[in-house]
Amino acid sequence: MEYVAIVVVLFVAFYLFIHQRYLKQDGLKDSAYKKKGSLLNSKESAFYNALIAAVGQQAVVMSKVTMTKVIAPKAKDKKQWFIANNRIAKSHFDFVVCDPRSLEVRVVIELDDGSPLSKGKVERQKLLMHVCQSAGIPLIGATIKHSYQVGKLRRLLAAHIDLIEADKEVRFCKRCGSPMNIKTATHGDYKGRRFFTCSRQPHCTYTENYNVVFEDE
């Protein structure tokens, strides 16, 4: 009886060995693949190159990053967690700008490629705004024209990433026409943020947000 049991065990072990060694390999051989090509289309590639030029060595740019790699649900129970996770499971961020040392995401950028506004596009924008606001991640909306306006793109990023130095810019007061100076807030809700202030202060109190981007005439 013991001899029969030993034979059965050996037979089962031999069967499992053959199944693992050959049958699974044959299954993989039946599956062929091909390369799909560039990860980004021509418009996305142009914007990506502009981002690289804007951040220099002060940040790392990644594209098409799935949301679940960056954020996670803050749910009280498993049901809420699965619902919240399903909302972001199939979505991605167009571009993320990361700290060069830790690769922690500092800024999310959504690229508007100029395609017509649709229901799906509106729903995506709502989701992006909600998840970024909830997670405390700055969200920048950019257009394809920023691919040719690296200086303006750098100013947008510099408002959120201190290591990025914006191009020197001369801006004039819209109230009195005098040159404006760049200052940094030392207290309040905007502590640490840069802004423009009129050089004639205290006679002129006009100020302007640092990351305002002016379109060309």
TrEMBL record:
- Keywords for this protein: Membrane, Transmembrane, Transmembrane helix
> What Pfam families does the record point to?
DUF2726
Q: Which residues form the DUF2726 domain?
A: 38-157
Chain coiled-coil ranges: none
| Gene3D superfamilies noted in UniProt | Bacterial Topoisomerase I, domain 1 (3.30.65.10)
Q: Does the keyword Transmembrane apply?
A: yes
Q: Where do transmembrane segments lie in this chain?
A: 6-23
- What InterPro entries does this protein's entry cite? DUF2726, UCP028063_topo_Znf
The protein's name in its UniProt record: DUF2726 domain-containing protein
Whose protein is this, by species?
Vibrio panuliri
